[in-house]
Automatic annotation (TrEMBL):
This is tRNA pseudouridine synthase B. The lineage of its organism: Bacteria, Bacillati, Actinomycetota, Actinomycetes, Kitasatosporales. Residues 35-187 form the Pseudouridine synthase II N-terminal domain. The keyword rRNA-binding does not apply. It comes from Streptodolium elevatio. Residues 188-229 form the tRNA pseudouridylate synthase B C-terminal domain. The gene is truB. The active site is at D50. Keywords: Isomerase, tRNA processing. One of its GO terms (molecular function) is tRNA pseudouridine(55) synthase activity.
Amino acid sequence: MSKPRRNAGPPPPDGLVIVDKPAGLTSHDVVGRMRRIAGTRRVGHAGTLDPMATGVLVIGIEKATRLLGHLALTEKTYEATIRLGQATVTDDAEGEVTATTPAGEVTREAVDAGIAGLTGAIMQVPSKVSAIKVDGKRSYARVREGEEVELAARPVTVSRFDVHEMRRDADVVDLDVTVTCSSGTYIRALARDLGTHLDVGGHLTMLRRTAVGPYPIEGARTLEQLEESFSVLPIADAAAAAFPRRDVTADEARLVAHGGRLKAEGAAAGPVAVFDPDGAFLALVEETQGQAKPIAVFVG
C-alpha cells in the first residue's frame, strides 16, 4: 500500500527523481505514484518504458518537468534478452506467438553478422504496438482493434549491441545483450529484425534500462524506497549533469532571466545550461546565428 505524502505545506523542491521502475507498471502508473509521494500534480517522465520493462525512468518534479523534453533525447542503455525461434504480435513476451521456427542450428557467427547489420546508423521500422500515432490514433490501439498497421522506417543509431551469452534450449536460442542507442530506438524491433535476418523470428523476453544519459541505474531508487524517504536531485545538479555548462555574469544573468539573448560562445549544437554567479540554474539556451537564445527559463 502506497503511503501518500501530505499535500499540506510547501511544494516539493524542483528536481529529478531517478526511479527504478518495476515490471507490471506503465510509465503513467509511476507518475501517478510519484504524485502521491511528492504531494504535487506537477510530475512528468522522460522516455516511456513498457510495462514489461524495468529500470531507469527519469521523473521530473515541479519546474524540472520542463527539462524532460530535452532529457528524452539523450542516449539510453539497456540490458535485454532476445529469444530466437519465436515471433510475437508485440515483438515481446507479452504478445501472442505468431510463428515458431526451430533456431537450434543458428550459429554465433550468424548472430554476430545479423547484429552487425543492426549497429550504427540504421533505418528502423517501429513495433506495430508502439505509441506512435497513425492518423491521430495510437498504433497499438489500431492493432488491438484488428487493423493492419504499416509504420514508416525512421533513422536511429545503435552505438553498442553486444552479446554476453548465447543459451540453447530445445528449438529456441536466448541471447543476453547490452544495447546503447539513440532516443526513439525500439529494442523490441531490434529483436524482431535480428530474428527476421536469421529466418527464425525473434522477440524480447526481458528488458531493463540501465542508463538515461548521465543518470545510471546505480542512482535509481524504487518506489518503496521513495515512499519511505522522498528526495530529489536538485534541478541545478540535474542540469549540470545532463548539459554543457555556461556560467554568466550578474548582468548576463538578469538578461537571461527575462528571456534575453547572450552572445554565442561556440558551443556544440544542443541545449546549454546557464548558471548565475551564485551557481543557481537559470535557463537552457541554444546557440544560433551568433546568439545564445533561451529555449527554457527556470527563474521568475
